[in-house]
């Protein structure tokens, strides 16, 4: 069904492109056979006068040398039989040439199905000036009747000289480069009858899958695609539970659907949307007699599914002010359910018989955003709050109410923990497996390092079994407490699904890097050198990072901003992956603060903005943790600990650029997820500057009416350019208060799509085009004449986000899981 949805998007894209001076996007790179001449002259046919071309090594590179000593002759080679081409499509050809003397020429050639030459593009010339490698470009639109396009390296009549050619590459005007990142790790796991049931997240274009995994054999025995409809697409899920009747239930997003799988069957059943609709089912818990309880975002609903019907339990939200019912645990003996809520953390006991609600969260955790995990086991309630595991005894008081007594507080613990067995609960702390003795309250470490992010535990004949995500995919972990034997092995046959692209940027090595949404992973694309398969990445996904929100090439390194906890990494492409963690914004600040007067920032979460200073400093702009409004600015430099400071209370920092000796930043009036109202009341987004010399921060009001966000900043020929909604503003960094603004587009509908207020616009310059600035707003890519400020919309694509540029001057953007290239030079 998802392919039908994708087809609808593709049809809309096609209609848009046909109305513009670009042809429909085509799949995968065009690759000229032997374009680098590593195979001599294979794939290049003789042209014009015989001879004159041979394969040689020049300047350490394999090249095609054209030697022309005859002013009455012409010499060349053409890449025949050519590549498939479409009439009306613009093609751009690139070649690297060393003109040792004279002039060298590069041509595009278009031929019909019989091989007849139709026309050649205007040539790109390179002279002997400089005696060095130069990149030359030829561009042209394929005429009517075109079937193929080819490249011609050439020395014409009247020309004499010697030229060396290498790296002849080609692109269409718009190219669908396909999937860049793959994931093979589960988001949710439950167990039943010797099998693990793991839910693998998809994308807006690819349905998620349920994998049935034989625990003993450590291999997948069945893969089932989760069905959906075009009106209510299912992207993934975080919730899985096994009911008392053995049925497996799955809770999904963004449609809050519940699915049931009966072990042994070949399909899952769509049970519909949880009452109320909304977007996420965050957790599921089995109750008595086949019932299943669940919690949702963003209406904070607690619901039951029983005998084919959904029922809301209690009020909506179940706790006043709660948007999340993030975690659940069920005590079957008392028929009571424990609910962990957010965005302001809450923990309640809900009596399913009487409807009584008792609040249990210790006061010390009231400043946290939510209770992220709950388990009732061994007669205790285990509550996970921001990597701290609380072990709570729930006691009935004389007045009939319930209260919690803290038996233990264990820090730096992974989210999931085991069911109790022989009085002990097992979990991973600081990378090592630990046990907690319920009676003695003792925490005991082992030397066992599971090496995976466990998404679910069970017991099998006295052996602890954990399944989850590792850098090489899904792994299964087994540990026998009786003898200490353990193993961790990759599960064979797991689903391999595309990951949606969340961020893209050019690296210092000239490659385009992409970061995956939710499941993480990093893709690497070598411009114009991809393969012909657009349904799989050109290079294996680099694993080990969570969701990437921003990328920056600076001083020969790639800096990566990752969610959660606003982590800053650096990566040297000349060294092995993974990158180095440099700073964690989630550990800065205090959960009780929100940049109130005299107080610092709250912990930060989403690093949407990165910029570099000339002294090597890296600046990171962030959105805070759940339930907070104040983002912050992080200043980090090699050899320093780094620091995070408030710059604009009640606003997030979503764009940065260094210009005129200062850092400039743009804010968004949207706070973190869970704040209500979404936008700071009465606030306008501002521009601010940070002076590296003294740490001074100044803010500047924009000459616009209540802008909600400044989503793009760029230094352009010594000026600062920015986007606030649909308006362009510019200023001289020496006089930042003198801001001029121009309306380009209607303001985006931030009410309908609040995420745009964090990451809507982009601005950048292209070295090969010194006369223009390029950018995005909404679904449009545009360019602006630097002198006249005249605007030209180049492309409109539904769902398009992001923008970066490669070393050839081509632009890149993404739609869901797919990367696209737009060739703008010569158009």
UniProtKB/TrEMBL annotation:
Residues 526-546, 581-605 are annotated as: Disordered. Keywords: Signal. InterPro entries: Galactose-bd-like_sf, WD40/YVTN_repeat-like_dom_sf. The keyword Acyltransferase does not apply. Residues 588-597 have a biased composition (Basic and acidic residues). It comes from the Bacteria. Residues 1-27 form the signal peptide. This is CBM-cenC domain-containing protein. It comes from Nonomuraea helvata.
């Amino acid at each position: 069904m998802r392919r039908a949805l994708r087809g609808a998007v593709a049809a809309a894209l096609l209609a848009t492109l046909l109305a513009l001076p670009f042809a429909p996007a085509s799949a995968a790179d065009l690759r000229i056979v032997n374009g680098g001449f590593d195979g001599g002259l294979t794939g290049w046919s003789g042209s014009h006068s015989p001879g004159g071309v041979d394969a040689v090594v020049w300047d350490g590179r394999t090249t095609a040398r054209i030697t022309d000593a005859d002013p009455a002759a012409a010499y060349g080679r053409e890449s025949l039989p050519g590549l498939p081409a479409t009439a009306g499509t613009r093609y751009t050809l690139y070649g690297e040439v060393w003109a040792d003397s004279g002039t060298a020429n590069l041509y595009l050639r278009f031929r019909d199905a019989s091989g007849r030459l139709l026309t050649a593009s205007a040539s790109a010339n390179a002279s002997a000036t400089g005696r060095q490698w130069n990149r030359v470009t030829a561009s042209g639109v394929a005429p009517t009747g075109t079937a193929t396009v080819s490249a011609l390296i050439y020395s014409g009549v009247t020309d004499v000289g010697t030229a060396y050619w290498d790296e002849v590459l080609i692109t269409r005007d718009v190219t669908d480069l396909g999937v860049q990142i793959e994931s093979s790790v589960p988001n949710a796991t439950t167990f039943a009858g010797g099998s693990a049931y793991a839910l693998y997240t998809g994308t807006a274009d690819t349905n998620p899958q349920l994998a049935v995994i034989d625990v003993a054999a450590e291999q997948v025995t069945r893969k089932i695609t989760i069905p959906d409809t075009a009106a209510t697409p299912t992207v993934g899920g975080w919730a899985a539970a096994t009911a008392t009747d053995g049925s497996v239930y799955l809770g999904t997003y963004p449609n809050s659907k519940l699915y049931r799988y009966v072990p042994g069957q070949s399909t899952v059943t769509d049970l519909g949307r949880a009452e109320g609709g909304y977007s996420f089912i965050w957790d599921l818990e089995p109750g008595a007699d086949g019932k299943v309880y669940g919690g949702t975002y963003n209406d904070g609903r607690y619901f039951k599914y029983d005998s084919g019907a959904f029922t809301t339990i209690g009020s909506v939200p179940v706790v006043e002010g709660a948007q999340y019912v993030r975690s659940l645990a069920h005590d079957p003996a008392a028929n009571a359910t424990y609910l962990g809520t957010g965005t302001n953390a809450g923990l309640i006991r809900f009596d399913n018989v009487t409807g009584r609600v008792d609040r249990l969260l210790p006061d010390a955790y009231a400043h946290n955003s939510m209770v992220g995990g709950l388990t009732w086991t061994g007669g205790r309630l285990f509550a996970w709050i921001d990597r701290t595991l609380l072990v709570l005894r729930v006691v009935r008081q004389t007045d009939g109410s319930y209260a919690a007594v803290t038996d233990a507080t264990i820090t730096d613990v992974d989210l999931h923990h085991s069911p109790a067995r022989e009085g002990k609960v097992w979990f991973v702390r600081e990378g090592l497996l630990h046990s907690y003795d319920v009676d003695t309250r003792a925490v005991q470490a082992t030397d066992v390092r599971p090496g995976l992010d466990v998404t679910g535990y069970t017991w099998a004949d006295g052996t602890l079994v954990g399944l989850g995500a590792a850098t090489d995919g899904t792994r299964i972990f087994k540990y026998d407490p009786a003898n200490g034997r353990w193993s961790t092995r990759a599960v064979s046959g797991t689903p391999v699904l595309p990951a949606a692209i969340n961020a893209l940027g050019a690296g210092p090595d000239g490659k385009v890097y992409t970061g995956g949404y939710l499941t993480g992973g990093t893709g690497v694309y070598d411009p114009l050198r991809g393969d012909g398969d657009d349904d799989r990445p050109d290079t294996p996904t680099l694993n080990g990072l969570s969701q990437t929100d921003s990328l920056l090439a600076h001083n020969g390194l790639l800096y990566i901003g990752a969610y959660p906890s606003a982590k800053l990494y650096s990566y040297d492409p000349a060294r092995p992956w993974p990158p180095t963690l440099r700073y964690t914004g989630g550990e800065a600040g205090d959960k009780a603060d929100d940049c109130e007067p005299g107080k610092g920032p709250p912990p930060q979460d989403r690093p949407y903005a990165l910029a570099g200073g000339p002294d090597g400093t890296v600046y990171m702009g962030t959105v805070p943790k759940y339930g907070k409004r104040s983002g912050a600015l992080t200043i980090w430099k090699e050899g320093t600990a780094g620091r995070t400071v408030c710059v604009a209370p009640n606003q997030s920092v979503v764009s940065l650029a260094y210009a005129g000796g200062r850092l400039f930043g743009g804010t968004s009036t949207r706070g973190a997820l869970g704040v209500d109202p979404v936008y700071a009341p009465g606030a306008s987004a501002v521009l601010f500057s940070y002076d590296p010399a003294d740490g001074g921060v100044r803010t500047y009001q924009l000459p616009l009416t209540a802008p909600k966000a400044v989503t793009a900043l760029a230094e352009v020929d010594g000026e600062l350019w920015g986007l606030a909604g649909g308006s362009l503003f510019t200023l001289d960094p020496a006089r930042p208060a003198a801001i001029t603004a121009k309306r380009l587009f209607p303001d985006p509908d931030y009410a309908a799509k609040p995420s745009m207020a964090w990451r809507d616009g982009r601005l950048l310059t292209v070295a090969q085009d010194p006369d223009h600035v390029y950018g995005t707003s909404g679904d449009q890519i545009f360019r602006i004449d630097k002198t006249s400020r005249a605007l030209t919309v180049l492309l409109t694509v539904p769902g398009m986000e992001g923008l970066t540029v490669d070393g050839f001057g081509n632009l890149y953007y993404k739609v869901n899981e797919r990367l696209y290239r737009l060739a703008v030079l010569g158009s």
